[in-house]
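Quick one: structure for this chain?
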Amino acid sequence: MTMAAAVLAAVLVALLAALTWRRRGGALLPLAAAILVLSPVAIVEWLGAVFARRRLVQPARVRRALEAVGLGGLAEGCTVSARRIAKGRMNAVLLVTLARPDGAGRTLVLKHLLRFGTLLGWAARTFGATREYQTAQGATARAIREVRALRRLRRWGFPTPRCLGFSLRARIIAMEYVDGLPLAEQMARQPALIPQLGALLARMHAHGFSTGDANPENMLVDAGGRIVPLDFEQSHFHGQTTWTRKGFDVAWASAFLATDEERARLHAAYGPCPPPLADATRAARAHLDRFFPIVEWYGRRWRAPGPSPRAAEVTP
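Got it. Here's what it folds into:
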């Protein structure tokens, strides 16, 4: 190893240690070392995901994906086109358009769960404070959670997309397309959506279900003004959602609100806040502040002023 490489490695170790040392009294030093060791492999995973996203939009691959989920017949005699409609790191979400020669057509969504983030997620669960908030990192595990959530929420009457088919082996899920506007942007223009989000989380938790990722960018507002949750890769259901998971959902959603008054409205719409939920929410927010310091900036960047061109269509 050259002197320059040794110095670079030492700087990286020192940086990772400095970023994590204060969070648990130095207990995250093993996490810093694990991330340093696994980084080369994680970079390979990331490059593979980038390459996969570019290939998945090819018509031939879209046809194969439809066949994998049992919907190959839909594409017969159709012109197939696809484009990405989400910017997820661990998945590729495609809007697929099937156009027939007579002008008829159909649109649906294909979600591919990519093999990215597995190793770093394992390091975080094994060595870091994220052990308290267990997540599913493997692509197949995330696909299973997504399919189960779509079916259960649909059965319970929640406005989620209908699951049209799936293949756990290929890690592909086909869903109906929901036309709507991003909730993250609309909450800034329509404050009435904030309490609706709080009530939606409360209803889910009452069924023993937690989203695990109550990020407003993973939700839409449809033409009827309803909030439509979309992403359930980190969802959890065991009949009785724990206070920890409930608190994480509430904290994650409120982290994207700009003011304490907005957070108070979200919590008030959620309903009674017993001490265990209040404690779990505070602990989850502290966790987010430590491990995701970029959340405050991330939440502000979509709060653009000005009316939406389709605001009248989605007013609750």
